[in-house]
Amino acid sequence: xxxxxxxxxxxxxxxxxxxxxxxxxxxxxxxxxxxxxxxxxxxxxxxxxxxxxxxxxxxxxxxxxxxxxxxxxxxxxxxxxxxxxxxxxxxxxxxxxxxxxxxxxxxxxxxxxxxxxxxxxxxxxxxxxxxxxxxxxxxxxxxxxxxxxxxxxxxxxxxxxxxxxxxxxxxxxxxxxxxxxxxxxxxxxxxxxxxxxxxxxxxxxxxxxxxxxxxxxxxxxxxxxxxxxxxxxxxxxxxxxxxxxxxxxxxxxxxxxxxxxxxxxxxxxxxxxxxxxxxxxxxxxxxxxxxxxxxxxxxxxxxxxxxxxxxxxxxxxxxxxxxxxxxxxxxxxxxxxxxxxxxxxxxxxxxxxxxxxx
Length: 358
What we know:
The chain is of the alpha/beta class and 358 residues long. 39% of the residues lie in helices and 19% in strands. Residues 47-337 form the Glycosyl transferase domain.
């Protein structure tokens, strides 16, 4: 039995380690239908998770996140799309070795991108064997229940984008221009922090200007190439462009899902309090926090304004190139459970009537 396990482990390790070097020489056209699975053979009861990785400092977090996705029975495979060409091969090889310790779940693979283009997140891939894909960032942790629920909702709305992070476009009447914003009661854009979409949309996004394309495209083929070029130029807005593609195809807005537990490690509002002990340590941490808050108030506000401006520029340019505005508003979000809405007086407090007071 031990020999069998050893042989299996060695085979798995060799297979994993050989993955990265083979991709370095990959030169086949991802838009060539002959290199992609037959759409009729794609499975619908499982999903492929595509995680965008770039920073070596997040490898420890990425290892944990990919293992969580891998453990889900709804996941067919986890593909880590490494978008930093400058990362040493040895680093990714070591990362790959560490991933081999997770047995029993869906396979986890590291695919090293040849460029840092954000458009690469949406390339069709021969290793995708499912009708749906989840596009994720490497700093987003989602509880298993919410993930399974989001996939369940996608199965009932396969033409729509499904996700947890919503934004909106709007028309600034005073300036007569499109802007990128957040509304409290409506949304039209889902972010690539996490989104679920039909695998076909990868092809529509990436291959609309390809001579190999055999699929009917609602968007003008030359325009899609120009819009992808804008994403490269701005190093931003690939999520907005995918929202354009899906809305233009489905003529409907995205669907926002309520999560049970979701951690965004990349949110600048996170506050770390590592190594704080004793009264003196707490006092030093309090002083550092006040300083950070002052810097954050100025820095975040400035960065947010610049960020929204750049993404507003993308919306305006996508609209100009396409000649129409396909984005559609959606309202509300889908919840996993329907609890009691009424309030009752229990223990001197107003609480939901079905809540137990001990």
